[in-house]
Structure to design on (875 residues):
């Protein structure tokens, strides 16, 4: 690989040479190019004249530059394709720059670009430098005034951050609007939108009486699908006031939905820009899961106003400062909206599916990375989801009250500043008078820690001893790890499943709670419990109190007991999952595939779930879902995806043989034919669909699936049936797929689902079908949602066919990545990730994956984004 882009290192951080106090921007949006005029009030940070000013700039045409009103002589500046350097500057000056950019041609979707008929921006992390020359780093915070000039017919709505302060018409017929944002902000929070948009409007009065105008803008064909987002926004605003005392701070909160977007959404000050996937919801076209996503992402972006915008990041290594924290706040909010246990199970599933494999692979990095080539590659499950688990651990270790004290101090100290993860930790420590030095290793050490627990019961002394050992596997650049500080929440069950009082050896006799938080800090620790009248079953890591892999040698009976009786919902679910995992791993370990995978303990645990299903259908749905093939793969030193698939299918067949008729009963009792969107209805739908999903792996189910598809009254049911039908190559499947496309050919988000179910199909010829679907008139490589629905879903969600032994899946992915590299590097790099997980595959798969990675690595003109993933992935 030639021309290697350089890594940026955290250790090399330097404070900015100059501050920018105000930014005045003027955009002229013309069909043949956009003219951006910027006027910056700058001053040297040391107050002295003479320091060079280095501005970032990418894909810009510099038209004019002047300092303090005088055109700048060529001798005083240098421009290249990344930057503009200005010399001999006074201590304080006004800098004016005019540039030309081409949003129409911008398929990278960073900076200013066109999505459909509208203009929009994405500036995080480094998009602003594609708009104008600027110190594009988060520790330079300025007050922005933005004027947008455009044709009023095509672009009647012109938006930017803050408050609308002025508007008018030009003699040539164009109109203009001026916006002013009084809060100093980094350039990554700048936003602009121009288009012909419909607006759903509402109001929210804050606790202190500020009347806030809430507006959600969508393209006209999407009107009527924003009620759910608006309700979510209002409940998020009320929640942050109630739980954190945090209020909104501008007179207006705007959200714009765009079709072409690299990520989920963006928290630009006062003007969020959202992927349509994360705003639009309607029972006819959105699944229950989509409704949950909208609620979560609306809340997430709203919460960023305090954790991200009011207090922002000093540099991009600190990304988790705002993302980990905001994901945790989002999780707390979502837990308060419905069943906290079921939400927690979902969070752990996501962490295990996305973050554990990342932490175990070649792209493993700490929550606060030490270096990057392209920061876009670090919007990862580690920074977001493990980062959120780190915040959850502060909450557990300090207690809810201590945590909120820490948050208060954090805002008191740092409102209006760009700070670091160390600053956050210091606020938590100082507010609670705690030493969190060891806890800070969660920010610096990558890898998923392993907790090995052993126990000993002394019947004579009635003493029970838990020995906890921790270790952490090596990760790139980090061979040795120091012990972490983590909360292990636990309880003990007697043989009847009742919680036992926990008399810790050196605590007061009266202090005997039913649950304890053990603080783990060393390589090895012992916890001694007294007055333990019988050998207990330990219930460990309740609520998934730390992001670790827990190892304790449970018997099947013990797991069944925990699954039936534990006081903690997460642990009940987890025990069932571990039992199933244990049996599947045992079957995989045998030379001859066994006739049966499930045993009486698993079957009776599942039978118990079915019998109690009506108490909490949503929980039952989780408990009936077997660990995924990816999760099983993650437990193995060598992964044979076909073998895993066979064993998991065999386990399901055992379940059907034993519990098939009960599953059918549950299915019939819970399937609905309505569009009710309350939690109870959604829970019953989840249960019915899970039961159907199990039954579908048996024989003679075509009619059942066809009926479910035909009778579906909402997208959850319809998509569930379609997905199950699409695994087979028969007329029923073809008819349903055709019907589905016919009905919703004009709804982009539903067409995404149509692509996705086909990408996830277990059909052997799925790679060929995908290649065909890429030629379908509805497919496009320039729309990230389409790419994710077809290519992303296939490579990440269909291990069996992605790893087809002839390597067709790998070739398809590599071909697509090479095309995307020239269109949208961020999306290309992200799609490529599954190919980097070759280390634990069986040798033939490993070779096929490496071959394709090398082919990409040898291609010309690789983007920084793709280069970084390929080169690390090959190591
Ligand atoms: N800050 C956004 C969030 O809420 C993510 C934006 C990242 N965008 C990007 N192109 N890297 O999580
Ligand atoms: Zn975020």
């Amino acid at each position: 690989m030639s021309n290697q882009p350089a890594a940026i290192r955290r250790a090399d951080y330097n404070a900015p040479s100059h501050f920018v106090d105000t930014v005045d921007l003027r955009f002229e949006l013309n069909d043949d190019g956009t003219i951006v005029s910027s006027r910056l009030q700058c001053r040297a940070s040391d107050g002295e004249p003479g320091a060079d000013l280095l501005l970032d700039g990418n894909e810009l045409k510099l038209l004019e530059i002047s300092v303090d009103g005088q055109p700048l002589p060529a001798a005083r500046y240098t421009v290249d394709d990344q930057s503009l350097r200005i010399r001999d500057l006074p201590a304080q000056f006004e800098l004016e720059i005019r540039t030309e950019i081409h949003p129409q041609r911008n398929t990278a979707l960073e900076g200013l670009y066109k999505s459909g008929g509208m203009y929009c921006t994405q500036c995080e992390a480094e998009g602003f430098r594609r708009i104008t020359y600027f110190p594009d780093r988060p520790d330079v915070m300025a007050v922005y005034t933005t004027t947008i000039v455009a044709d009023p017919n095509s672009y009647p709505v012109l938006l930017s951050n803050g408050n609308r302060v002025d508007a008018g018409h030009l003699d040539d017929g164009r109109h203009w609007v001026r916006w002013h944002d009084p809060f100093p902000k980094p350039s990554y929070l700048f936003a602009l939108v121009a288009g012909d948009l419909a607006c759903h409007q509402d109001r929210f009065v804050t606790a202190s009486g500020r009347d806030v105008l809430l507006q959600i803008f969508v393209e006209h064909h999407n009107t009527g699908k924003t009620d759910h987002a608006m309700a979510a926004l209002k409940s998020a605003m009320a929640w942050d006031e109630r739980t954190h005392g945090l209020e909104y701070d501008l007179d207006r909160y705007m959200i714009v939905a765009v079709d072409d977007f690299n990520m989920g959404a963006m928290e630009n000050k006062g003007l969020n820009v959202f992927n349509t996937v994360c705003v639009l919801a309607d029972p006819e076209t959105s699944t229950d899961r989509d409704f949950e996503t909208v609620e979560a992402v609306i809340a997430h972006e709203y919460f960023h106003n305090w954790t991200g915008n009011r207090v922002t990041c000093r540099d991009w290594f600190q990304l988790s400062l705002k993302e980990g924290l905001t994901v945790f706040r989002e999780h707390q909010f979502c837990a308060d909206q419905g069943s906290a246990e079921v939400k927690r199970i979902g969070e752990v599933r996501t962490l295990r599916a996305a973050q554990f494999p990342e932490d175990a692979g070649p792209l493993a990095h700490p929550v606060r990375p030490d270096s990057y080539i392209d920061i876009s590659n670090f919007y990862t499950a580690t920074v977001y989801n493990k980062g959120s688990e780190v915040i959850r651990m502060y909450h557990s270790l300090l207690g809810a009250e201590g945590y909120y004290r820490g948050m208060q101090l954090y805002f008191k100290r740092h409102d209006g500043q760009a700070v670091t993860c160390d600053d956050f930790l210091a606020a938590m420590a100082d507010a609670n008078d705690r030493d969190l030095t060891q806890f800070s290793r969660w920010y610096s050490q990558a890898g998923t820690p392993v907790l090995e627990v052993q126990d000993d019961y002394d019947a004579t002394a009635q003493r029970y001893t838990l020995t906890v050992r921790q270790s952490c596997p090596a990760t790139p650049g980090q061979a040795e790890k120091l012990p972490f500080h983590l909360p292990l929440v636990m309880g003990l069950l007697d043989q009847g499943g009742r919680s036992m009082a926990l008399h810790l050896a050196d605590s007061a006799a009266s202090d005997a709670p039913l649950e304890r938080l053990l603080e783990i800090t060393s390589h090895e620790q012992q916890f001694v419990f007294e007055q333990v009248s019988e050998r207990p079953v330990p219930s460990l890591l309740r609520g998934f109190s730390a992001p670790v892999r827990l190892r304790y040698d449970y018997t099947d009976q013990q797991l069944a007991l925990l699954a039936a009786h534990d006081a903690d919902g997460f642990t009940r679910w987890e025990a069932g999952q571990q039992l199933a995992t244990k049996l599947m791993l045992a079957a995989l370990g045998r030379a001859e595939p066994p006739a049966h995978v499930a045993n009486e303990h698993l079957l009776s645990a599942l039978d118990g779930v079915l019998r109690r299903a009506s108490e909490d259908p949503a929980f039952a749905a989780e408990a009936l879902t077997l660990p995924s093939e990816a999760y099983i793969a993650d437990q193995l030193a060598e992964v044979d995806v076909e073998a895993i698939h066979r064993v998991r299918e065999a386990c399901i067949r055992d379940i059907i043989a034993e519990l098939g008729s009960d599953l059918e009963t549950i299915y019939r009792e819970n399937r609905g034919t309505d569009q009710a969107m309350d939690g109870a209805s959604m829970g019953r739908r989840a249960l019915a669909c899970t039961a159907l999903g199990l039954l579908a792996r048996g024989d003679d189910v075509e009619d059942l699936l066809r009926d479910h598809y035909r009778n579906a009254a909402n997208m959850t049911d319809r998509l569930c049936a379609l997905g199950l039908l699409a695994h087979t190559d028969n007329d029923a499947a073809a008819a349903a797929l055709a019907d589905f496309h016919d009905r919703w050919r004009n709804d982009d988000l539903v067409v995404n689902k149509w692509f996705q179910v086909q990408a996830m199909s277990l059909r052997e010829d799925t790679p060929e079908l995908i290649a065909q679907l890429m030629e379908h008139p509805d497919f496009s490589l320039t729309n990230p949602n389409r790419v994710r629905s077809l290519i992303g879903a296939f490579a990440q969600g269909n291990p069996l066919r992605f790893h087809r032994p002839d390597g067709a899946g790998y070739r398809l992915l590599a071909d697509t990545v090479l095309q995307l590299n020239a269109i949208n590097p961020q999306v290309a790099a992200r799609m490529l990730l599954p190919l980097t997980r070759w280390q634990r595959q069986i040798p033939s798969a490993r070779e096929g994956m490496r071959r394709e990675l090398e082919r990409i690595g040898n291609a010309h003109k690789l983007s920084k984004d793709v280069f970084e993933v390929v080169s690390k992935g090959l190591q």
Summary: The radius of gyration is 28 Å. The pocket of zinc ion (ligand 2) is lined by residues 300, 304, 323, 326 (CB under 6 Å). The first strand starts at residue 8 and ends at 9.
